[in-house]
Amino acid sequence: MDIFQKFRTNQGDIGKHMTKAHGYFTFPKLEGEISARMNFRGKEVLTWSLNNYLGLANHPEVRKVDAEAAAQYGMAYPMGARMMSGQTTKHEQLERELAAFVGKQDAFLLNYGYQGMVSIIDAVCGRNDVIVYDSESHACILDGVRLHMGKRFVYPHNNIENLRKQLERATKLAQKQGGGILVITEGVFGMAGDLGKLNEIAKLKEEFHFRLLVDDAHGFGVMGKTGVGTPEFFGVSDQVDLHFGTFAKAMAGIGGFVAGDTDVCYYLRYNMRSQTFAKSLPMPMVIGALKRLDMLRSMPELREKLWSVAQALQKGLKDAGFDIGKTNSPVTPVYMKGGVEEATNLVFDLRENYSVFCSLVAYPVIPKGELMLRLIPTAMHSLEDVDYTIRAFKEVRKKLIDGLYSKTEFPSVKVDM
Asked: Given this chain, do its domains 5-53+300-407 and 60-298 carry the same CATH topology?
């Protein structure tokens, strides 16, 4: 059989909807200046789908530094992988400043967050080592775990009692095999917005010997008194052995880092295949990241604005009777009841008739019969944006309850294929 034949009969759980979704519900094009309002299919929409938490993506100071660095260096320098010919003093400076910011001895700069996490797990864990991870971990963690040639145990999301049981199993196996244990969780779970119970996980170190890797993609720059991240929020930075963060969220850039002890970071420098065999992060991105990091440290008003918007949005939604789950972060899920057809009709109505753009999450990501609208507040949004969005949500909820979205056939959308 032609190996491609299967794609013509089965595009996967999400892909099977692409003929009706592509270009609108999936792969939509938001155009124009990155802000709270952007253009979608020729009209302006209030946008709640960008992880631009602090509004740095289009900040004039950031734009200026990015442009000057690109003009000076171009996008090619440095050429080659860092180990061979791609090392610069700016790359080293960024690593030192990141390490100091998160309170670790050293940090290793990564080209991308997703591939970075996959490769960290692959480099740290050998065949005799055991991984224990949260069931709702991000796809990059799951892919890293799949690469692991040894044993892994999963515990139900944030279930610390079950984590203890898995650690008991992992300890027996690791002792038998002569390996170690790596526990992996997220600081902020990016879909539901709740926090990994880092304080309770760290306390388990009193009973078990393991190392803790925290994916803090959505927490870095946002959580904690100074924006260090979720470990700072819980006061357990010294118990987190590997602090992983990305530049794609609060720093509105490309790349990421992992911070920890110096010897561990040097091991990763020489053993992370995704970095050893990949071109060095281009200089404009490094210089841009240095500027963004400086703004994280020196402009707390950006974080304060983000939280004022996030708290107003979440309080307003709860006061209006919406279910926003257990979020403790800016990530704001809104849960409703409805099938895929109702969900798509509701989102179509929101975008076309209310000019509100937010992401839709439905089956198979969440259980059948449920739908979730995911909102990402940022420092770019205003309280007026919050008030308008809540009013729009009230109206579409009423239509959903009244059955309008299951009874009415909304105009078909011409998708881009």
From this structure: no
The DSSP code sequence of 173-202 is HHHHHT--EEEEEESB-TTT-PBP-HHHHH
Q: What is the C-alpha separation between 160 and 198, in angstroms, rounded? A: 10
**Residue in this structure with the two tokens 């009415």, named with its chain if needed:** 408
Instruction: Beginning with the edge strand found earlier in the chain, give each strand of the sheet holding 130-134 in spatial order.
Output: 106-110, 256-260, 242-246, 211-215, 181-186, 130-134, 152-155
pLDDT digits (tens, 9 = 90+) for 292-330: 999 999 999 999 999 999 999 999 999 999 999 999 999
Domain boundaries, the chain: 5-53+300-407, 60-298
From residue 242, how far is each of 190, 203, 215, 231, 383 by CA, in Å? 19, 16, 9, 11, 37
CATH of domain 60-298: 3.40.640.10
Write the DSSP symbol of residue 105: S
pTM above 0.70, yes or no: yes
pLDDT digits (tens, 9 = 90+) for 147-206: 999 999 999 999 999 999 999 999 999 999 999 999 999 999 999 999 999 999 999 999
Handedness of CA 155, 161, 164, 169 (dihedral sign): negative
The arrangement of secondary structure in 5-53+300-407, i.e. its CATH architecture, is Alpha-Beta Complex (3.90)
